Amino acid sequence: MDASLVVLIPILLTIEGSNRAVVPPGDGGAAIGPLQIHKIYVDDVNTILGYNKYSYEDRNDRQKSIEMAKIYISHYTPKGIRGTLLDKLIVMGRIHNGGPKGYKKKSTLPYKKKIIKYYKERRK
C-alpha cells in the first residue's frame, strides 16, 4: 500500500490545491489545507489511531495533512485490491474524496477522471 501512496499523494496535492503552499478553503470553508480535509476526516483519523493526535488546525500543515491522508486511506482501502496501479490509485483517491465507501459512490466519478488525468501526466 505504501508504494501506491507514494504515487497517490502528489496527485492528490495537485487535484486539491494545485500543489500550492497556501490553498484557500474549499466547500464553503469546510475543506482546509493542501489536501482539502474536512473536520470529520480528522476525527476519523484520530479514532483510527485511538487518541487525538491531530487537531483541526493541522489540516493547514502540509506534512500533517499528508500523514492524516496516509492513515485514512490505508485504513479504509479494501484489502487485496486487484488490478493495475492506476486501478488502486483510483480506489484510494475516491476514498480520500468521498469517505470510507467513496470508491463506490457516483459522486466521486469526476474525481476518478482527475486521478486518471494527473496520473497520465506524471508518467509522460
Any key phrases for this structure?
Lysozyme; 124 residues; globular; mainly alpha
Description:
There is one protein chain. By secondary structure, the protein is mainly α. It has one domain: Orthogonal Bundle (Lysozyme). It has helices at residues 2-17, 39-49, 62-76, 85-98, 109-123. It is globular. The model has no long low-confidence stretch (mean pLDDT 94).
- Going by CATH, the architecture would be Orthogonal Bundle
Give the total of beta strands: 0
Determine Rg (CA atoms, Å).
14 Å
The N- and C-terminal alpha carbons lie at a distance of 23 Å
CATH class: Mainly Alpha
Enter the CATH topology name.
Lysozyme
User: How many domain modules?
Assistant: 1
Strand content: under 5%
Percent helix, as a range, is 55-70%
Element order: H for helix, E for strand: HHHHH
Number of helices: 5
Low-pLDDT parts are: none
Dominant shape: globular
Q: Compute the average pLDDT.
A: 94
Q: Major beta sheet, specifics? A: none
Helix/strand structural class: mainly alpha
Give a summary of the structure in a few sentences.
This protein has helices at residues 2-17, 39-49, 62-76, 85-98, 109-123. With 124 residues, the protein is mostly helical.
In terms of topology, how is this protein built?
Blueprint lengths: L1 H16 L21 H11 L12 H15 L8 H14 L10 H15 L1
Helix pairs in contact: 1-4, 1-5, 2-3, 3-4, 4-5
